Amino acid sequence: MTDKLTPPSAPKHPITRSFHGRDFVDDYEWLRDKESPETLAYLEAENEYTKQRTAHLDGLTEQIYTEIKSRVKETDMSVPVRQGDWWYYGRTEEGKNYGISCRIPVAEGGDPWLPPTLPADGSGLPGEQILLDLNELAEGHDFFAVGASSISTSGRFLAFSTDTAGDERFDLQIKNLETGELLPDTIPGIFYGATWAGEDYLFYIRVDEAWRPHQIWRHKIGTPASEDVLVYEEPDAKFGVGIAADRSESYLLILSSSSLTTEYRVLPLNNPEGTFEVLWPRESGVEYHVDYAAVAGEEYWVVTHNAGGVNSGVGVTRISNLAPLRELNELIPHNDEVRIEGVDTYRDFAFVAYRRGGIGRLAVADLRSGFGEFRELDFDEELYTASLGGNPEWDTPVVCVVYTSFTQPAQVLNYRVDSGEFTLLKEQEVRGGYNPADYVATRMWATAADGTRVPMSVVRRADLDMTRPNPTLLYGYGSYEASTDPGFSVARLSLLDRGMVWVCAHVRGGGEMGRLWYDNGKMLAKKNTFTDFVACADSLFDAGVTDPSMLVAEGGSAGGLLMGAVANLAPEKFAGIQAIVPFVDPLTSILKPELPLTVGEWEEWGDPYHDPKVYDYMAGYAPYENVEAKDYPNILAVTSINDTRVLYVEPAKWIAKLRATATGGEFLLKTEMAAGHGGVSGRYAKWKQTAFEYAWTLHTAGAVR
């Protein structure tokens, strides 16, 4: 038994990385070769060791899995969404991993904009047509994911794509929904998405060797893929491309974007073989996004842009007489306190999504006789998330709004714009009984080293004794201007009900407090993300919420970089750190332009390949490179061998170096051998994985023994 519990020791095969006259000896870079028997043997040995070391958690893992499963309504369906003459919805069935896509025709008589009443048992609607049963498509595959599911305007054709490896390369097929037959058209190895232009043409995206979406292609239905036409190729390696149609289906839009800059090309949708034309040529650091509007007999572009201020404003210009970007008629001026996140236009009104005081908000304006004033939608809670749901119809008088909070299960609401009336269509059911009053969510503020106030969201049971420290999970991300907004989690109840406090640190690098919040946590200000997180931990200690022996940190992907950095920066403040698909060897990766996403990442982290100053700055915080001979908290790293975003080699190298260097701490690596960046596929496998991670967290924080 003792031999089985001996941790794997990765052999050292040192190579030297040399840049800008700086040398770094890397003992474990050999793990990058995932075809190597030595690499695979090492990963399997780590998996076996983790299995052995966590065997005592098997019972708890099973308990949490059972709790999650028991709280979820397994046979359920989504609120139908109208598109054309059909109501579309998805449903799930107990015992099945994947969803089923369905539709029913819009019935004559009654309110054509009120979705059909949902059956209480979630069993689907009478007379439904099954479009795709993902369980059938997934049969025989260890991994399964859908990359596109797009219906032609007439409702005749469905374009869908699937990935059975986890590498985010999809094979596209087209189904005739009138006959149920698959067309002979097949397009292998494409990127996410598919956009129809009528029912004769389909546009899709391909990626280059670095997994950058760089090409837009046009396919004519009924012809072989070998005859498809390359419509646009993006030459700048920092930019990726996407394509979509506006809601009115007046235009096709190609978006070229980097982290800092955007550029649109447009083409009337009724002329799919025509030439796309640039709206405003790209200008470094200027982002703009366009929505089509028809107001008082004129066609307009409604433009969200940052040419007048970092938090963006909204302007308009006639399509027939395009004004310069800085000379648009102003609808919403730039405001240092309000971050504009986007506009959604419909025939009779427009919505704007924005962020104020760390909370995302919605406002609506009437467009029937001109551009009206925006009025904010009101909600009762302090911490909440309200967002527009799927609303594909241009001429709808109602929209679907999704509302949730840390304590409120997700609600789907019908919002009638002319009256301001909300109608509840569906609330997420929590089986076994759930009372929101049993839980509370509050806002705390930490003070960073430079005096900046950093918000935290704190969620706990209402009856938890807060006169003493409690086991706590501190979550963080802090990159790409991504915001971690209030949302309900069934799985999180298994932590809260065992006496844990769940805290989200809204650190700089995220987008919660506006664009400057992001700008002050990226590139040569990236270390603010890490010190903000440590300040949040200190604030929890000072307030008596928890203490270092009870605090576990968690983050994934770029949040995994945060985990690795704080492990080096302040290991004494954490009992454990959980890093999911962690970006812990950033300098090695960012120095390899041939790797997926790397060149585009230079606008997020800086360009260490060409700039010694950036190299030195990143070298100062890169988790892998800064592992030291000191005591660390216990660390669990979880990764996937087919991840194309954060390669498995990063956590593998990190754990190997920690184990060889640290003077204290237990280091575990769990590699999914048939999965990608999102981990395992199938809801039951995902619940099982979550249960394992939560069991480790609960035990490490001392919530269970």
Question: Keywords for this structure?
Answer:
alpha+beta; Rossmann fold; five-stranded antiparallel beta sheet; 705 residues; 33% strand; eight-stranded mixed beta sheet
Number of E-state strands = 39
- Shape, principal axes of CA atoms: globular
Which residue ranges are poorly predicted, with pLDDT under 50 across at least 5 consecutive positions?
none
Euclidean distance between termini CA atoms: 22 Å
**Helix content estimate:** 10-25%
Number of helices: 12
Rg over C-alpha atoms, rounded to the nearest angstrom? 26 Å
Largest sheet: 8 strands, mixed
CATH H-level homologous superfamily name of one domain:
Alpha/Beta hydrolase fold, catalytic domain
Question: What is the percentage of strand-forming residues?
Answer: 25-35%
Level-2 CATH architecture of one domain = 3-Layer(aba) Sandwich
Q: What's the level 1 CATH class of one domain?
A: Alpha Beta
Q: Mean pLDDT across all residues, rounded?
A: 95
The CATH topology of one domain is Rossmann fold
In oligomeric terms, what are we looking at?
A: single chain
* Structural class by SSE content: alpha+beta
Summarize the SSE layout with pairings.
Layout: E1 15-19, E2 22-26, H1 37-53, H2 58-71, E3 76-77, E4 81-83, E5 86-92, E6 100-105, E7 129-133, H3 134-138, E8 145-151, E9 157-163, E10 170-176, E11 182-190, E12 195-197, E13 201-207, E14 213-220, E15 229-233, E16 240-245, E17 251-257, E18 262-268, E19 277-278, E20 288-295, E21 298-305, E22 313-318, E23 329-332, E24 338-345, E25 349-356, E26 359-366, E27 375-376, E28 385-388, E29 398-404, E30 411-416, E31 421-427, E32 439-447, E33 453-461, E34 472-476, H4 493-496, E35 501-505, H5 515-519, H6 527-542, E36 551-556, H7 558-569, E37 576-580, H8 586-590, H9 598-605, H10 612-621, E38 634-640, H11 649-661, E39 667-672, H12 683-701
Helix pairs in contact: 2-12, 6-7
